[in-house]
C-alpha cells in the first residue's frame, strides 16, 4: 500500500471507529429501505447486532414501525435531495427503543429527534440516506413535566382547595364575562348568593374541623344539583355564589328551593358527630339597567340578608325596583 492510500485508509478507519462509538444513532438506508450501515448506538438500543441488521429491510427489523410515514418522509429526501428533520413533539420516536436512563426512568421509551441526510453517489445521484437518531428523553421528560405542572397550577389557582369550587377571583372573572355577554346578547342569567345559617354555631359547638366538613358537604350537594353550564364558586368563608346561565329568576327560585331542601335534609358526618345545616339564598335576575357586575352582586346580597332578617332557611328574590 502506498503512503497516500495508507493515510486514506487510516482516515476511513477513524471515521468508522467514531461512527461506531458516538452517542447518536446512525443508520444508512438505500432506496429500498435496506440497511447499509448500523452503528454501535443502534446495536445497543435495538439489541440487533450490526452483522444481523446489514442487508435487512428496516421494516423487517422494526415490525411496529410506521412504514407509510417513514416512506413518505424518506421519499421527499430522495426526491428533493434536501435534509429533513423530525422532532419528538411531532413524533415521539422513529425507532422504538426502551428508555434505560436512570434519571428519566419514568419514560417507557426513548424520545428521539431525527435528521435525514441524503447521500450522493459519485455521479451526484442520491441513492442512500443517513438517519441520525438523537436521544432527547431528558429534555422531553423535563418539558412534559413542566407542562403538566403548569396545567395543574392553572387548575389550582382557580379552585378553592377546601370545596373544589371555583375560588372568588376566578368566579368573579366568570361573572364579569357573563355580565358582558348579557350586554351583547341580552341572554338572561340569574345570580344566586347563599350562606350557611348560624355557621359560627357549628364551629363553636363542634370545632373548626367539623365546620370544614360541613362546608365540603354543602359544596358536594351544590355540585350535585348544578347543570353543566352553571358556574359555582366559594365567595368567602361560608358564602357561596352561583351564576345560573340562561335562567330567569322564576326558574332560579325553583333551583334554589331544591338546593335548600337538599342541604336541609343532609346529615353531615364528622367522626362521631352529626351536623345539620340550613342555608339562606338571595336571587337576582340580571337587569338591563345594571351598569356594573358589582351591582348585580349587591342585589343578590341584599336578598340574602333579607332572608337572614326574615328568619333564615329560605330563598328571596331581589328585583331592580328594590334599588
Ligand atoms: N370551619 C370553617 N369556618 C369558617 C371558614 N370560613 C369562615 N368560617 C366561619 O364562618 C363563621 C361565619 O359566621 P358569621 O358571619 O357570624 O355568620 P353565621 O354564624 O353563619 O350566621 P348567619 O350568617 O347570620 O346565619 C365564622 O365563625 C367563621 O370563622 C372555614 O373555611 N372553615
Q: Keyphrases for this structure?
A:
46% helix, alpha+beta, 12 strands, binds guanosine-5'-triphosphate, 11 helices, 2 domains, Alpha-Beta Plaits, 323 residues, 21% strand, 5-stranded mixed beta sheet, Beta-Lactamase
Domain count: 2
The top level CATH class name of the largest domain = Alpha Beta
The distinct ligands, each listed once, are: guanosine-5'-triphosphate
Determine the fraction of residues in helical runs and give it as a percent range.
40-55%
| Arithmetic mean pLDDT | 91
Uncertain regions spanning at least 5 consecutive residues: none
Order of helices and strands: HEEHHHHEEEHHEHHEEHEEEHE
Q: Would you identify the CATH architecture of the largest domain?
A: 2-Layer Sandwich
Report the span from N to C terminus.
106 Å
Number of strands: 12
Strand content: 15-25%
Biggest β-sheet strands, sense, barrel: 5 strands, antiparallel
Radius of gyration (CA) equals 34 Å
Number of helices: 11
Question: What is the chains' assembly state?
Answer: single chain
What structural class results from the helix and strand content?
Answer: alpha+beta
CATH superfamily label of the largest domain:
Reverse transcriptase/Diguanylate cyclase domain
What CATH calls the topology of the largest domain is: Alpha-Beta Plaits
- Global geometry: elongated
